[in-house]
């Protein structure tokens, strides 16, 4: 389920008319549905019933303080990848003791900060990092809780830029090298306490099969580590894919519970039902690190059509959002459904929807048949709640868009639109 649907001919987010938000706050504008975020978090949590588990939301997907505060209120854990994300979680009232810290390149400052805040685990990506963690912890006279990320060499069958679990990726330590590494760490690194094992094979997985393959491959290893080193948790990572094609329609058919594979390739229910039986008797706490599955379909980017340009070969609809606001189409060939805020009736047209930036990659769709919206009309780029605003930049000296969080019939500005003065404030 998600909170976006036409009501009386105009697109709403829960009880709020998106056209009125666009008029009041301007465009480009990110709008998130609090109800959807709550729903997705709770569904995943419930789907894992039967296993001792924790849902650690991957902050990188959407790190707005109000989104984090909402999730902290649901007792979420948090998967962070920088000192900055830890700072945000703490500012939002999240508990550092429920934070895991991932990433291949943690700096000294970040390690110190996270150690002092008492995070749950450093998810370490190399032996070099583990040794450095031991050194920093020793200097502070602390013991660093840690897990090593295993690279299970499983094909996630997703876009190559968001596939992470193959041996040619930079992430994690080879499956075959893990046991020896834990033994060396136990013998040589007294300021590290290995309390778990972590894995993450990729993002936007739309089939359960690679998850099953990875879990089955790594299970004997975690059991060995538990027996030999007393590890207490296994993080199976994030990566659950969402609906991008026809995502508006998907909101009205309760697609998370859709029984047919055609309706939805991977539901949260299916994820839980398939993995719980494989995980429940391991005697380990299971951590999940979903980002996109929680917030992806909970957000849209609103943008206004400025011009329609008739080229010799194509029709271009030029809008006021650019690749600096939402980079997924340019970077991953990401598909975002495009719908006008006014419920369309009648004519459709084959168009490219493009932004104002001076790059050919600045498009939201190419050769797509869309309802024939006009200059002045506002459209929504669906499924933009994850890896949307967080990847936005000031390229072309364009201010970052505002963000709105809708909850029922209230809409709150959770980030003000940047001003030009904000952009240059730190420059000399
Ligand atoms: N855990 C780790 C260690 C990760 O690297 C990631 C995502 C996650 C969890 C959360 O994955 P999710 O559940 O959101 O799939 N910007 C790209 C996605 C990059 C994902 C990076 N890692 C996109 O827009 O598709």
From TrEMBL:
It is an enzyme of class 4 (lyase). Pathway: Amino-acid biosynthesis; L-lysine biosynthesis via DAP pathway; L-lysine from DL-2,6-diaminopimelate: step 1/1. Its EC number is 4.1.1.20. One of its GO terms (biological process) is lysine biosynthetic process via diaminopimelate. Pyridoxal 5'-phosphate binds at residues 239, 289-292, 387. The active site is at 358 (proton donor). It comes from the Bacteria. This is Diaminopimelate decarboxylase. It comes from Haloferula luteola. The gene is lysA.
């Amino acid at each position: 389920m998600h909170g976006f649907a036409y009501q009386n001919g105009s697109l709403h987010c829960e009880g709020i008319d998106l056209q009125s938000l666009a008029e009041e706050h301007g465009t480009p504008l990110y709008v998130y549905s609090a109800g959807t975020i709550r729903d997705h978090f709770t569904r995943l949590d419930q789907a894992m019933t039967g296993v001792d588990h924790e849902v650690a939301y991957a902050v990188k997907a959407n790190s707005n303080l109000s989104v984090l505060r909402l999730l902290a209120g649901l007792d979420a854990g948090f998967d962070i990848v920088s000192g900055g994300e830890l700072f945000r979680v703490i500012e939002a009232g999240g508990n550092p003791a429920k934070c895991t810290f991932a990433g291949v390149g943690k700096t000294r400052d970040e390690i110190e900060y996270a150690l002092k805040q008492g995070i749950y685990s450093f998810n370490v990506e190399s032996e070099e990092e583990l040794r450095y963690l031991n050194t920093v912890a020793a200097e502070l006279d602390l013991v660093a809780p840690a897990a090593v990320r295993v690279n299970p060499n499983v094909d996630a069958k997703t876009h190559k830029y968001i596939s992470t679990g193959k041996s040619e990726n930079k992430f994690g330590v080879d499956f075959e090298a893990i046991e020896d590494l834990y033994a060396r760490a136990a013998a040589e690194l007294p300021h590290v306490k290995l309390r778990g094992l972590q894995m993450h094979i990729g993002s936007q997985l739309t089939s359960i099969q690679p998850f099953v393959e990875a879990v089955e491959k790594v299970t004997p290893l975690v059991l060995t580590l538990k027996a030999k080193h007393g590890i207490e948790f296994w993080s199976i990572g994030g990566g659950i894919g969402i609906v991008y094609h026809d995502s508006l329609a998907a909101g009205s058919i309760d697609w998370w519970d859709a029984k047919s594979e055609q309706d939805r390739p991977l539901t949260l229910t299916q994820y839980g039902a398939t993995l719980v039986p494989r995980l429940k008797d391991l005697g380990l706490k299971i951590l999940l690190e979903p980002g996109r599955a929680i917030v992806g379909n909970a957000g849209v980017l609103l943008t206004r059509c400025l011009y329609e340009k008739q080229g010799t070969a194509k029709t271009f609809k030029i809008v006021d959002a650019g690749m600096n606001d939402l980079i997924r189409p340019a970077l991953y060939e990401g598909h975002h459904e495009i719908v006008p805020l006014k419920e369309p009736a009648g004519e459709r047209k084959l168009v490219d929807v493009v932004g104002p930036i001076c790059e050919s990659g600045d498009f939201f769709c190419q050769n797509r048949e869309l309802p024939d919206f006009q200059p002045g009309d506002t459209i929504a780029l669906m499924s933009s709640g994850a890896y949307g605003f967080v990847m936005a930049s000031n390229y072309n000296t364009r201010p970052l868009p505002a963000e709105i969080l809708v909850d029922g019939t209230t809409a709150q500005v959770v980030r003000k639109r940047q001003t030009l003065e904000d952009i240059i404030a730190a420059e000399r």
